[in-house]
Model the fold of this input.
Amino acid sequence: MQSLGLERVLWIPTGKPGYRKPPVASAFDRVTMLALALKDEADFEIDSRELVPGASPYTVDTLALLHADRPDDTFYLLLGADQHAAFKRWHRPAEVKRLARLAVFTRPGYQMPPGDAIDVRMEPMPISGSDIRARAARGESLDGLVPTPVANYITENKLYR
Done:
């Protein structure tokens, strides 16, 4: 937020995209975990519009709706470098770039073309969401990988098993 000068970050859990495997956890569980992770963050907001039945799974459509709801706001699409590397294959990528500035977080093994997006420098995390789900599936500890309330929720609800 500081490096981009943002006032607020919207977290938008994805619905059921027809173009890739659907999320393993239910929409309810994912929103609950997100709420647990963000509960003390006043500048973070959850927007669950993509979880509404019949919602478009495409970022471009979500951005268009956000513009309609908040016409005076400037939007940044925050991406990991892995997603940015695949961005040209997204649905209507030129329109996405018209609706939001791309801000890309560095990840090991990915190079960002100069001038294509804002390069957001941050210390890379040595683990991915896939790794966390695999650890949860094996019943391993998630200490230090996700906030404690999220780890407890995953364990109590036997998610990813």
In short: The domain at 9-124 is CATH 3.40.50.620 (Rossmann fold). Helices lie at 27-38, 59-69, 81-85, 93-99, 129-137, 148-156. The first strand starts at residue 9 and ends at 11. The mean pLDDT is 91.
